Amino acid sequence: MNPLFALKVRPGHPDFLDLPWTQSIVEWPDERFANLPRGPSRHEVRFVPYEQGIYVIKELPSAAARQDYEVLRALETRDVTTAIPVGIVENRYPDPGAERSAAIITRYLEHSFSYQELLQEHGFGTSREQMLDAFAGLLVELHLAGCFWGDCSLANVLYRYDAESIEPIMIDAETSVLREMLSDGQREEDLEIMIMNVAGGMADIAAARDLSIDEADLMLGEDIAERYRNLWRELTETMLIVPEEGFKITDKIQRINELGFDVDEVDLIPADGGRRLRMKVKVGGRNFHSARLHRLTGIEAMERQARQVLSDLHYYQYQAGARTITGKEVAAVQWRVGIFEPMLARLRAMTDIHDPIQAYCAVLHHRYLKSCELGRDVGTETAFQDWLAAGRPDYSRATGNHAPAGA
């Protein structure tokens, strides 16, 4: 045993010195753990509760732990959707290649679940399209940040419902490498690894259900790759415009924002002797709407949730503008104080609702459906009462009663 372990922890979290790091986590007393569901993992994973929250401890060899921790830290600064790295423990055992030689600590991801919990019967049921788009979007996001994943698979991602969509979260970066920029060949290599890993995962699921290999959804990875290539093309293609077509710059930025990505800058380079301009857009992180909502209101939400909540703000601003000459900034404050926060408080008071912002999105969706049904706008309060009376449709689907999973 090696008592001289090295512990690195980020500020704002426990010091974790109360844990018996010189022992493997499989030897720790059961009463120290939170008994929570987890997806498949090649390494030992445990959940440990503290006053500050629940933390995930993953035990693995030193080199892999260091790579995992450093890549997750770097991706966090680039606004990529990953597990939140909190600390790393090394020198726990004399052999650095042993599983018990190191451990990485991440924050527990609330409201998340593994890909098996998305499965309904055979395949992903009504969640299939959402999952495929989300998975492709995460891989694009990582590649734009210069991250070669190296082991992209369904098992290395957790999922959360984000309004009407699914948000994937990268949780395993031990095989990842960060570069300034990825070549087309490196991106295609990562796609090929993903296709093989996803096919293997679906084959394992089919075998566990006593299905033949022909019944496995082996083309799932190919479908993700096709969606990836379409999204990558939209985000990175170079356009040629004439100087009088400046509106196309705005159109391009709006299309990228609709996909949830920020635009860092637009390069306009003279071409054809100056008769045309070559437009190249530098795409930023995939948090355009969440960042905008936070700037406007201070509210933190996931990307699709933020997009839907912003639509409610715009709906309110439109109504307020029709009644008064109130400016948009004033209307945003009035909406938050008079509409959003009171509704959120009512949702939080319901003991079986664990994600009130997601529930708020369900109410907004219900308001939209009722308005379409009646052929006129119905207010949020009317929609809320009808949503309750109807048994809270969509919210049960959106949460799926999934228990959170760990990294």
Explain this structure.
It is a single chain. The protein folds into four domains: 6-108, Phosphorylase Kinase, domain 1; 113-234, Transferase(Phosphotransferase), domain 1, CATH 1.10.510; 239-283, no CATH class; 296-399, no CATH class. Helix 6 packs across helix 7. The protein has 407 residues and is an alpha+beta fold. It starts with 5 loop residues before the first strand and ends in an 8-residue tail after the last helix. Strands 1-4-5-3-2 form a five-stranded antiparallel beta sheet, with helices on one face. It has helices at residues 62-77, 128-144, 184-208, 220-236, 247-258, 288-297, 303-323, 328-348, 356-374, 380-389, 395-399, and strands at 6-9, 44-50, 53-60, 85-90, 102-107, 112-113, 147-148, 157-162, 165-170, 177-178, 239-241, 263-271, 276-283. Mean pLDDT is 83; it is low at 395-407. The chain is globular and about 65 Å long.
Can you summarize this structure?
This protein is of the alpha+beta class. The protein has helices at residues 62-77, 128-144, 184-208, 220-236, 247-258, 288-297, 303-323, 328-348, 356-374, 380-389, 395-399; strands spanning 6-9, 44-50, 53-60, 85-90, 102-107, 112-113, 147-148, 157-162, 165-170, 177-178, 239-241, 263-271, 276-283.
Supply the key terms.
alpha+beta; 17% strand; 3-stranded antiparallel sheet; disordered C terminus; 11 helices; globular; Transferase(Phosphotransferase), domain 1; 407 residues; 13 strands; 5-stranded antiparallel sheet; Phosphorylase Kinase, domain 1
